[in-house]
Write a structure and sequence with these properties.
The complex is a heterodimer. The radius of gyration of chain A is 25 Å and the shape is elongated. Chain A has a single domain (24-303), classed as MetI-like (MetI-like fold). In chain A, helix 10 crosses helix 11. Chain A has helices spanning 2-18, 23-33, 35-52, 54-57, 95-131, 133-147, 151-162, 166-176, 179-193, 196-203, 208-244, 256-263, 272-298. Chain A is built from 13 helices and no strands. Chain A starts with a helix and ends in a 7-residue tail after the last helix. Chain B is an alpha/beta fold. In chain B, 36% of the residues lie in helices and 25% in strands. Chain B has helices at residues 51-59, 85-91, 103-106, 113-124, 129-142, 148-152, 161-173, 191-208, 219-225, 243-248, 253-261, 328-335, 358-364, 385-395, 400-413, 430-442, 460-477, 488-494, 512-517, 522-530, and strands spanning 7-17, 26-36, 40-44, 67-75, 78-79, 96-99, 179-183, 211-216, 228-233, 236-242, 278-291, 300-313, 317-321, 343-348, 351-352, 368-371, 448-452, 480-485, 497-502, 505-511. In chain B, a hairpin with a 2-residue loop joins strand 9 and strand 10. The chains are: A mainly alpha, B alpha/beta. Chain A binds chain B through residues 2-3, 5-7, 10, 13-14, 16-18, 20-23, 26, 195-197, 199-207, 210, 214-215, 218-219, 221, 301-304, and chain B through 23, 253-254, 256-257, 336, 338, 362-363, 365-366, 368-370, 372-374, 376-383, 391-392, 395-396, 417, 420, 423-429, 432, 437, 440, 444, 543, 545, 547.
Chain lengths: 305, 547
């Protein structure tokens, strides 16, 4: 009888264990409890929607100049009108419309540069971590070389030689900021590679591409996502810096960095001109970073505490 | 124990609530424990039974999210739970001390061990430097460390695991505490070292007349040192009494289940396998690791495996036993070609496995499979159980649908619900995961199965089930099993033949009864001698069938 009851409790615990939430359910619960992730995600989604539907949202053509209405204050200022809620710039272009179109450029550059650098960095990092030995030595050397380059300076030099356009800025940034992907993913891969499930897959006859795609990449994906968000924010800020220095996106394109640059001359008597695009940049980068931090928190490998 | 022994610690009706959302509402619930001076009280239980929480609560080291919700912990006439933190701090290390499981992480690697022991004196006593020094040397001598003068100025990493644990004990004893709490202090140690430490603790009991609370999961250790025993399950005390009562005449069914699950020395003897064909042959397998030197350090050469030769016949279970660093894991990794041996032959079913090149190796990998020690690290957390099990067959060209069908059957064989195919490893317990690992290994229909410490991380009752499962599949699949373990009892229970390894060499071999009954090599003798609780004859119960 005692045996019977022992057996029953055993099967009861078996049932209980199987009823534990799946990793996906667990993640959803964690997301629900993670407010900063929710805030970051909502701001970012709002910005993305704004960029996609920019042409429906803008009150004016962002390129249309109206020299009779130059430097109109935003509505909270003395000369503010609802016709230009955020005022106009030195050429009389509607500031709100330029801001909305600017989100397209910021997101486009951030996303594309992150994609290019992500591909380069992931390939290098995973290869170095998985194969080790000579491959690792060569890739580590390449990473070290890249780390010794001052990003802004090199980007400035290249853009000034090749000529600046949106595409050039994206490619130059993408080719420059893969270092963090490579460094982080290399060490993450090293760690995962020594897990016994990789050894088990090897013993089960899995080929190395299969091991990389089925065992390594899914288990380093949380690092990948976090670095990707950081680098996206990084690229957006770099673009703004380049544009500010006049070597990024060229006028009349409404880039936020360019808007800050153009507002420089009016900084002391029209401070809102520099504040408005600055706040937009700040919000976007903050949102991306909050999201990245949040994703790291909710996707930590399950099962181990 | 004598009647005059005074009670040092009494835990009365202690309950500690778990944060909401845990799998039960209390970590420990309504427990009563008394410890007298000069006695060793063992708290036994499986993982999650609340034994460590009890010891941490007594010491006042509970993590912040755990709060005692009822009860008292009386020590020297005061209730520890209501004592202000400052007063508790003064008690810790002075009147009560603790020894942890992992001595490496409990010692600070930046200071010499002498410094760290003296620190205790500095915190609690006013002593001159010379007094401290003489006290320190006395302590080091007491815990039987050789050459105290030299040990004193050593850093933790320069000492062996056993020596580090002795340092921890010396530190705990520094101020002659009334209560010593030892939380699995020998679990991370090899058997021979464990025997020495247990011996030391036994001597301390009489020399210091302190009460010792000894937390363990190992009934062998209990049999070796306990005066009284408390058995815990799911945060409750199910039974307590003298060591003799609990070990030989347990009353509670759970205690009986635990004791019944302790592996016995008698197991496999008498099966005839001599006529079976040879399934695995290893001939002079050698592996040497070279660490290249550089400008500052000399290169190092470690002979991990030295000319290991043995044969295993079909249906046989060969045990490879040895302490850590004996080369058994390297040998196994050579056998499955996770690392390449320097020289030697490995023949599996007549095929020279060691001589295969990259491409041909992949085809033959399915002949030899492995189950690893850590049930948490050996399953990819991002893939479903079904995906994990069909990985092998799919790699060897079996169509997916067919492999899935087979996976369902395998899950039934390892006694898991076939409907859990699309669940993730994180949803299973340690024992269940080890079953999944076994199913995964069986999926490619191997000829040889290696179990590398496959049951070491499991609780005894789960361990027993997995061992039974391994035996069962060996017989029904005609497998050959290589069972690597450091636990002699487990080896004795499951193996036909035994190989004993030391420093990369095979020092003794033979069938179980010969090796364990009449060992020839000194090392085997010392291993057997060190086995905790070797004099305890495990009682048999009527309802002792496999659970």
């Amino acid at each position: 009888m005692t045996l019977q009851s022992a057996k029953q409790t055993q099967s009861a615990t078996d049932q209980q264990a199987i009823l534990r939430p799946t990793p996906r359910q667990q993640m959803i619960v964690r997301i629900k409890m993670h407010y900063s992730l929710q805030i970051g995600a909502s701001i970012l989604i709002a910005m993305i929607l704004m960029a996609i539907f920019a042409s429906f949202l803008v009150p004016h053509d962002p390129y249309a100049q109206d020299l009779s209405n130059r430097l109109v204050d935003p509505i909270w200022g003395s000369t503010g009108t609802w016709d230009h809620p955020l005022g106009t710039d030195s050429l009389g272009r509607d500031y709100l419309s330029r801001l909305i179109y600017g989100s397209r450029i910021a997101l486009m550059i951030g996303f594309s540069a992150m994609l290019i650098s992500g591909v380069i960095g992931t390939i290098l990092g995973v290869a170095a971590g998985y194969f080790g030995g000579r491959v690792d030595a060569v890739i580590s050397f390449i990473i070290l070389n890249r780390l010794s380059l001052p990003v802004t300076l090199v980007a400035l030099a290249v853009v000034s030689v090749v000529g600046s356009s949106l595409e050039v800025v994206v490619v130059v940034l993408g080719l420059l900021i893969w270092d963090r992907f490579a460094v982080v993913l290399r060490s993450a891969t090293l760690q995962v590679r020594n897990m016994e499930y990789v050894a088990a897959a090897e013993v089960l006859g899995a080929s190395f591409p299969r091991i990389i795609f089925k065992d390594i990449l899914p288990n380093i994906s949380n690092h990948l996502i976090v670095v990707a968000t950081l680098e996206m924010a990084h690229a957006i800020l770099l673009e703004a810096a380049l544009s500010f220095l006049g070597m990024g996106v060229q006028p009349p394109l409404p880039s936020w960095g360019l808007m800050v640059s153009e507002a420089r001359d009016f900084m002391f008597f029209k401070p809102w001109m520099i504040t408005v695009p600055g706040v937009a940049l700040f919000l976007l980068v903050l949102a991306i970073n909050l999201l990245g931090d949040g994703i790291r928190d909710v996707t930590t490998p399950e099962g181990r505490n | 124990m004598t009647d005059v022994a005074e009670t040092i610690l009494s835990i009365e009706g202690l309950s500690i609530a778990l944060p909401v959302g845990g799998d039960r509402s209390f970590a420990v619930e309504d427990i009563d424990i008394k410890i007298n001076s000069g006695e060793i009280l063992c708290i036994v239980g499986e993982s999650g039974s609340g034994k460590s929480v009890t010891s941490f609560a007594t010491m006042g080291l509970l993590p912040k999210i755990l709060n005692p919700s009822a009860g008292r912990i009386m020590f020297e006439g005061r209730d520890l739970l209501t004592l202000p933190e400052k007063a508790r701090k003064e008690l810790r290390g002075d009147r009560m001390a603790m020894i942890f499981q992992e001595p490496m992480s409990a010692l600070n690697p930046c200071y010499t061990v002498g410094n760290q022991i003296e620190e205790v004196f500095k915190k609690h006593r006013r002593m001159s430097a010379s007094q401290r020094r003489s006290q320190l040397l006395r302590l080091l001598e007491e815990v039987k460390l050789p050459d105290p003068e030299r040990i004193r100025s050593a850093y933790p990493h320069q000492l062996s695991g056993g020596q580090r644990q002795r340092i921890m004990i010396a530190m705990a004893l520094a101020l002659d505490p009334k209560l010593l709490i030892a939380d699995e202090p020998t679990t991370a140690l090899d058997v021979t070292t464990q025997a020495q430490i247990l011996n030391l603790i036994k001597q301390l009991k009489s020399a210091h007349s302190a009460g010792i609370m000894f937390v363990t999961h190992d009934f062998g250790v209990v049999a070796e040192i306990a005066d009284r025993v408390v058995v815990m399950q799911h945060g409750r005390i199910v039974e307590q009494g003298s060591a003799d009562e609990i070990l030989n005449r347990p009353q509670h069914p759970y205690t009986k289940v635990l004791i019944a699950a302790v592996p016995r020395k008698s197991g496999q003897a008498g099966r005839s396998i001599e006529d079976n064909p040879v399934a695995l042959l290893a001939n002079n397998v050698t592996k040497t690791f070279h660490t290249p030197g550089n400008l500052f350090t000399k290169g190092r050469t470690v002979h991990a495996v030295k000319e290991a030769s043995f044969t295993v016949r079909r249906g046989e279970t060969l045990g490879i036993v040895g302490e850590s660093g004996s080369g058994k894991t390297t040998l196994v990794r050579c056998l499955i070609r996770l690392i390449d041996p320097d020289s030697g032959e490995i023949e599996i079913n007549g095929i020279d496995f060691a001589g295969l090149n990259r491409d041909t190796l992949r085809e033959h990998r399915k002949d030899i499979q492995i189950v690893f020690q850590d049930p948490y690290g050996s399953l990819n957390p991002r893939r479903t159980v079904g995906d994990l099990i069909i990985e092998g067959p799919v790699n060897f060209g079996v169509p997916r649908a067919e492999a899935l069908q087979r996976a369902r059957e395998l899950l039934k064989i390892v006694r898991l619900d076939p409907d859990c195919m699309d669940r993730y490893p994180a949803q299973f317990s340690g024992g269940q995961r080890q079953r999944i690992c076994i199913a995964r290994a069986l999926a490619v229909e191997p000829k040889v199965l290696i179990a590398d410490e496959a049951v070491s991380a499991l609780d005894v009752s789960v361990q027993k089930e997995v061992l039974a499962l391994i035996n069962e599949i060996r017989d029904s699949f005609g497998l050959t099993v290589l069972f690597i373990t450091h636990d002699l009892r487990v080896a004795a229970q499951i193996c036909d033949n035994i190989i004993v390894m030391k420093d990369g060499e095979i020092v003794e071999r033979g069938d179980v009864n010969k090796v364990f009954g009449a060992p020839e090599h000194d090392y085997t003798k010392s291993l057997l001698d060190a086995e905790p609780g070797k004099d305890w004859v495990i009682p048999e119960f009527e309802d002792n069938t496999s659970v």
